Structures are given as structure tokens and as C-alpha cells.
UniProtKB/TrEMBL annotation:
It comes from Oleiphilus messinensis. The keyword GTP-binding does not apply. This is Acetyltransferase. The keyword Transferase applies. NCBIfam families: exosort_acyl. SUPFAM superfamilies: Acyl-CoA N-acyltransferases (Nat). Coiled coil: none annotated. Keywords: Transferase.
């Protein structure tokens, strides 16, 4: 992972500076849309800024998605977001983004949403980490402004930055693992990210070709056994920490969410 931290300390390092937030309210979901606007519209220009005059990037898929945030404890800033698209959240016939926009890229004849029962799979989607929290160690003297206050990150805090994206994937993983109706999870991601995740023991299987979709991405799949069984000890410790937090929040705010 390149942080230089002992594996036993990764979970502790992450938890010292960040917390996972289940976006159970409209206000929290708005925070996810703001991050997505900043990253997908303003920074990367994947989406048209003018289509979102309120500076919140959202689409029809959000109505049947679960959203998670990572919050920087010291500043109160949100450091990333991800959503889990779950057709079980609506009685309408709906599609995951991978089916809507990238179905032709899937070449696997078995691990394909069109071959699976609609209520057995979900998709990790719209992962976004603001530029502020992608700065690496060594980038000194670059404070940022938050609510009128100049905030500088310590070098120790920056060592946790590479785990923000991993933490978001683990939040989605915890949601997936605890959802009794779900057996499969799909994601469109850059192949280099899949290699990065594989080093942690999260071994997504590529099921199709690379296509242009918010950059060069390919379709990937993983099931619960492969997901949990492959994590290396340091990532499993981080996963357990994140899962505990998510389960407590879901139990408090939407206890019916993971009912059989």
C-alpha cells in the first residue's frame, strides 16, 4: 500500500482520523452529492456542471441506492463518498448503471447481471474522494480553507489518505456482506485500481473488456465468499472496524434494512 505503516496499525491509524457515516438522511445524502459534483463535474469534467445548478450531482439511480461517507474527524470535512446501488429498494423494474451503460462490455456468460435474478446483486458506484484528501505525504505548505478556517494536514494524517478509497470500498463491502438478499456485487473500475485492491486481498474478477466510462474502466465482480475469504489481516482488521460502525448506524436509523 506504500504508507510505510505496520499492518497492525492501519485500522487504528484510519480510525484516529476518519469515521464512516451511513447517509441515512436527506441532509447527509446531499453531502454525497456535493462531493460528487466537485469531483465528477468540476475536477474531472465527467459530467456537465450546468446540468446541476445546485452544485449537487445526482441521478435517477440514487433513489434506489445506499450512500456512505467518510468524515475527517478534526475538520468535520467529508473526505469521500460511495453508493451501493440496490434494485431491492424499489418495486419498479430498474437497472444498475453497469447494465444501463456498460452491458456490452461484459463478456462473462455466467457472472452477468442479465443472467442473475434481479434481487441478488448490487453495484458499487460513484466513489469519489476530493482532491484535498488525495494529497500525498511530502506536499507541505498547502493548507485548505474550510468554513473560513485555514486547515493544514499533518504528515501522519496524510499517511491515512491512501486508505480513504479502500475504506469506501470496505463500507460498500460491509453493506453487501450484511444484506441477506444479495449474493453478487459488480463495479466498473480502472484495472489499475483492481490491482491495488488485489494487493490487499480484495480480489475482484474482471468479467469484460475495458471501455470508456468516466475514464477507462472494466466490469468486475465478486461474491461474499471471495470477498471475505481473501482479505489480508491488516485489511480485515480495517473492515471489521468499519463494519462494526456501519452495523451500529444501520441498527439505530434503519433497523429494517437488512431484514431477510
Amino acid at each position: 500500500m506504500g504508507s510505510g505503516m505496520p499492518s497492525a496499525n492501519i485500522s487504528e491509524l484510519f480510525d484516529s482520523y476518519f469515521e464512516i457515516v451511513y447517509a441515512h438522511s436527506a441532509a447527509l445524502r446531499d453531502e454525497t452529492y456535493k462531493i460528487r459534483y466537485d469531483v465528477y463535474c468540476r475536477e474531472l469534467a465527467f459530467e456537465d456542471e450546468s446540468a446541476f445548478p445546485d452544485k449537487m450531482e445526482r441521478d435517477e439511480t440514487d433513489s434506489y441506492s445506499h450512500h456512505y461517507l467518510i468524515k475527517h474527524r478534526r475538520s468535520g470535512m467529508y473526505a469521500g463518498t460511495v453508493r451501493v446501488v440496490d434494485p431491492n429498494l424499489t418495486s419498479d423494474a430498474v437497472l444498475c448503471p453497469i447494465e444501463q451503460y456498460c452491458s456490452e462490455s461484459i463478456t462473462d456468460e455466467v457472472l452477468n447481471p442479465v443472467k442473475l435474478a434481479n434481487n441478488t446483486y448490487c453495484e458499487v458506484s460513484r466513489l469519489a474522494v476530493p482532491d484535498t484528501f488525495r494529497r500525498r505525504t511530502g506536499e507541505k505548505g498547502k493548507p485548505f480553507i474550510y468554513e473560513g478556517e485555514r486547515i493544514s494536514m499533518t504528515e501522519t494524517e496524510k499517511k491515512a489518505f491512501p486508505y480513504i478509497a479502500v475504506g469506501l470500498y470496505l463500507a460498500a463491502a460491509a453493506h453487501f456482506i450484511n444484506s441477506p438478499k444479495l449474493s453478487h456485487i459488480f463495479v466498473m473500475m480502472e484495472p489499475r485500481l483492481s490491482i491495488h485492491l488485489r494487493r490487499t486481498g480484495i480480489d475482484f474478477r474482471q468479467i469484460g473488456e475495458v471501455v470508456e466510462y468516466h475514464g477507462e474502466r472494466a466490469p468486475f465482480h465478486i461474491d461474499k465468499e471471495r470477498l471475505l475469504g481473501g482479505m489480508n489481516p491488516m485489511i480485515r482488521a480495517l473492515y471489521d472496524c468499519i463494519e462494526t460502525s456501519i452495523c451500529a448506524q444501520v441498527s439505530e436509523h434503519t433497523p429494517e434494512l437488512w431484514a431477510p
